[in-house]
Amino acid sequence: MVEGSMTQGAGQEPVVRTATLRDFRVPPYAQTAVPPQAQVAPPSSVPPRTPGPNPPAPGASVPPAPAPPGLPHPGNAAVGDEQPEGYTPTERDLPVIRRGDTVQVQTVPEPAPASEDGLGPLFVVGDVHGYLSELLAALGEQGLIDADGNWAAGNARLWFLGDFTDRGPDGIGVIDLVMRLSAEAAAAGGYCKALMGNHELLLLGAKRFADTPVNSGAGTATFQAAWLLNGGQKTDMERLQDVHLQWMSRLDAVVEEDGHLLMHSDTTAYLDYGSTIEDVNDTITAILTRNDADECWDLFRKLTKRFAFRDEGGANAVRELMATYGGQRVVHGHSPIPYLLGEVGTEEGEDSSGPVVNGPHVYADGLAIAMDGGVTMAGKLLVVQLPLHD
């Protein structure tokens, strides 16, 4: 396993990416804080403007038939659950392939017509993790922004699936861009919205609670230690302002768009927070408003679960979510596509060949679409138009 700093120097060229095998560890098995290294971040290449609001989620769609009762979904791997001694999610869930092996994933989206209510085509963005340059390039390739980084897609609809910060060099620059595009898209008759990822919860917790001990269920943990262990960037924390905190704390967790149930994490843990989309979003907002460290930690822990849709019973887990919240397909980020396929590229030097991801991964009997292309491991930052034609 590569032993290296969990933080990247934002001024280095090329950017030093976080060690893959440590990316997905969270406390409780990190019980002491990892000291951050001093970094100097370059200014964001896209200056922030006055942020616009994140409008409410649209109405519900016709739900599919409920899943047959009694069928298991043994996924939702998570830290803090009952596990054998010595367990880590890396060891059980994230196997590593040999250097030079690749993962080939290809889907070719076709242009979608405008929706019945007159809104433009729907696009979704996978995990960004501070890679602002890659995000600008991907948005530009889809014609969503112009060469100056301004909204150029008219009445198109754009949803970010969460995880804007940590691991990459400019998480605050990413948030500033999304906030600005929200205002510009609304002025053009479209919209740009964002969902709550587990790293938003992590950054909020690190800022609010720092080294305050929380009840992790398996020993003492802190948000600060978890944030640092998961690629927290000192420069992001230094540039974090109240407007960023307020924006993150009001993000929705689940929405439905054109028959697509959008969420960050591939987990059924959302069911713990309500029987409707509105209930889930209201409950999570209320938890963050109450500002209780243990309650916020439990929320973070649950929404860090993953792989519920991947293995035996995975399709039934997707059906359970859609039977409750609507939609005909779940679209999520959180778990990088190479991990979902049980294959992980190495990062042991410049000659290491990273995973090849050319598009989203459709799985769970065609009911789930994974959107995290693994940009943190030299993969691809995915921006795709829905529906997919696969």
Task: List the keywords.
single chain; 390 residues; alpha/beta; 12 helices; globular; disordered N terminus
Order of helices and strands: HHEHEHEHEEHHHEEHHHEHEEE
Helix content: 25-40%
Distance between the termini: 36 Å
Radius of gyration: 19 Å
The fraction of residues assigned to DSSP E strands is: 5-15%
Mean pLDDT: 78
Quick one: overall form?
globular
Number of helices: 12
- Regions with little confidence, pLDDT below 50 for 5+ residues: 1-75, 79-114, 346-352
Protein structure class: alpha/beta
Task: Give the strand order, joined by hyphens, for the main sheet.
Answer: 6-7-8-10-9
Major β-sheet, in short?
Answer: 5 strands, mixed
**Total beta-strand segments:** 11
Structure description:
- The chain is of the alpha/beta class and 390 residues long.
- Helix content is 28%, strand content 10%.
- It has twelve helices and eleven strands.
- It has helices at 20-23, 89-93, 132-141, 171-187, 198-209, 223-229, 234-239, 242-249, 277-290, 293-302, 314-325, 337-340; strands at residues 122-125, 157-160, 191-194, 214-215, 220-221, 254-257, 260-263, 329-332, 361-363, 368-370, 383-386.
- It has a five-stranded mixed beta sheet. Strands 3-2-1-11 form a four-stranded mixed beta sheet.
- β6 and β7 form a beta hairpin.
- The longest helix is centred in the middle third of the chain and has 17 residues, at 171-187.
- The protein is globular and about 50 Å long.
- The two termini are 36 Å apart.
- Mean pLDDT is 78; it is low at 1-75, 79-114 and 346-352.
